[in-house]
Amino acid sequence: MRSDPIPLLVSYLRSIPEIPAGAVTGTLVGRSVGETTVYLMQSGGYRSRRDRVDRMFIVYDVYGQSPAEAGALAYTVREYLLEQLPGQSLKGVLVLDVREEDAPSWHPDRQSLEPAYSGEVSVYLVADD
What is the pTM of this model? Predict the structure, then answer.
């Protein structure tokens, strides 16, 4: 499979009304300190079945204007990734399963000290053909 999971997941999370418009991104370039942000990045992964199934590790960092906002948004992202994403077809890629690697935890930004939570999931992907 040749699909980059980040644009697929960014697009998926942007479609969820409970997540603030414009908050989900795959890059921090152009982001200002204090903006509510859901930043997705791939932390690794591997091919689990020849050319068919990929297991991708996805970290989500959620920045908010307060610890309460960041925490609530992180747990919303977690819920949608774990409970709603499995079975979804995203631009020719089927999400077989999503498993939690690390639940959201308090992880303020080291430089700005912004309130932030971070979590990680494994996303199992297969070509939807």
Answer: 0.92
